[in-house]
């Protein structure tokens, strides 16, 4: 239950991404700078936190011990997540981006068979391939249905071009984010705290963002002061606060696939915070009709996830007590 609450708070800060990325695009800012600057701003902030906690050397040691895995999965989890997301925000409407992003709550569940779980046996520890938690998958699909219903009122203007530039990049991002996160939890093996892991992933993904920024400078020139400020806000709110909180929640739930799916499903609540933010900051009309039904389904789905996560933990605890 605590992990789900942390995930919901993280999604609130992550909602800033959708609002400000769209705002930057409407004011003429390039997605190349919106994506790369976020991680350039994140790096010194995370570095300061890790240094103050005297944890820097341990991060470097972990990266040196497995550099290829670190670079690969950090680039997937951060690069192939955020670059396509900001690209889509530049070419597709905000409702389409926010709605399509909800695929990530199902993507995380479907990726379960790619990972193994260590289990004790008579001959020592063995690795068992994880199975898709069907109950969690069903609830996540229910939440995804709610997100689709919220966006249904906008579907009349949907075009093939929106599919290519507004949907496909977000689908890539929706799978890349949980894949990179889960793989890095596996690589780090619990030896690093959340700040160390986020810092390490940011550090080794910098070459990717350097290439993006160089291309941005050559193609569109330097970023405006307004884009610098808004990207800094995104870096603090979404990059440092939201990412750290979300990774804390997934770290706590990583040994239970059903619970982990529930935590990943909390990202669906970002769409609720986006709606609130647009009504409050952009004077958008308050949702009604189908949108209210979709909101109700998302809330119901999250409550159901919370119930089964807590109920499953209680059953596991009872079994341990009995044994």
Automatic annotation (TrEMBL):
Ranges annotated as spanning the membrane: 5-24, 30-50, 70-89, 95-116, 136-152, 158-177, 198-218, 230-249, 261-283, 289-308
Pfam families, per the entry: EmrE
Top-level taxon in the UniProt lineage: Bacteria
Record InterPro entries: EmrE
Protein name in the entry: Multidrug resistance efflux transporter family protein
UniProt keyword Membrane present: yes
Key words of the record: Membrane, Transmembrane, Transmembrane helix
Species this protein is from: Evansella tamaricis
């Amino acid at each position: 239950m605590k992990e789900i609450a942390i995930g919901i708070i993280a999604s609130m800060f992550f909602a800033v991404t959708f609002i400000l990325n769209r705002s930057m695009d409407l004011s003429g800012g390039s997605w190349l700078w919106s994506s790369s600057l976020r991680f350039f701003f994140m790096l010194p902030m995370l570095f300061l936190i890790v240094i103050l906690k005297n944890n820097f050397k341990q991060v470097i040691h972990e990266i040196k011990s497995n550099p290829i895995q670190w670079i690969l999965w950090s680039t997937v989890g951060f690069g192939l997540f955020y670059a396509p997301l900001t690209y889509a925000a530049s070419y597709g409407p905000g409702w389409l981006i926010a709605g399509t992003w909800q695929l990530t709550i199902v993507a995380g569940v479907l990726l379960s068979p790619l990972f193994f779980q260590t289990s004790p046996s008579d001959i020592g520890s063995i690795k068992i391939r994880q199975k898709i938690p069907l109950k969690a998958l069903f609830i996540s699909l229910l939440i995804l249905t709610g997100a689709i219903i919220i966006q249904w009122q906008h579907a009349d203007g949907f075009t093939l071009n929106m599919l290519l530039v507004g949907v496909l990049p977000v689908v890539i991002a929706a799978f890349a984010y949980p894949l990179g996160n889960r793989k890095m939890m596996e690589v780090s093996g619990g030896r690093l705290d959340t700040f160390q892991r986020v810092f390490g992933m940011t550090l080794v993904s910098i070459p990717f963002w350097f290439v993006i920024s160089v291309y941005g400078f050559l193609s569109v020139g330097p970023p405006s002061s307004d884009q610098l400020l808004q990207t800094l806000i995104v870096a603090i709110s979404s990059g440092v606060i939201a990412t750290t909180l979300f990774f804390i929640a997934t770290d706590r739930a990583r040994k239970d696939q059903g619970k982990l799916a529930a935590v990943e499903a909390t990202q669906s609540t970002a769409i609720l915070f986006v709606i609130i933010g647009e009504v409050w900051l952009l004077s958008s009309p308050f949702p009604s009709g189908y949108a209210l039904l979709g909101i109700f389904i998302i809330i119901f789905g999250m409550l159901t996830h919370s119930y089964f996560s807590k109920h499953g933990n209680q059953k596991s605890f009872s079994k341990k007590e009995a044994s």
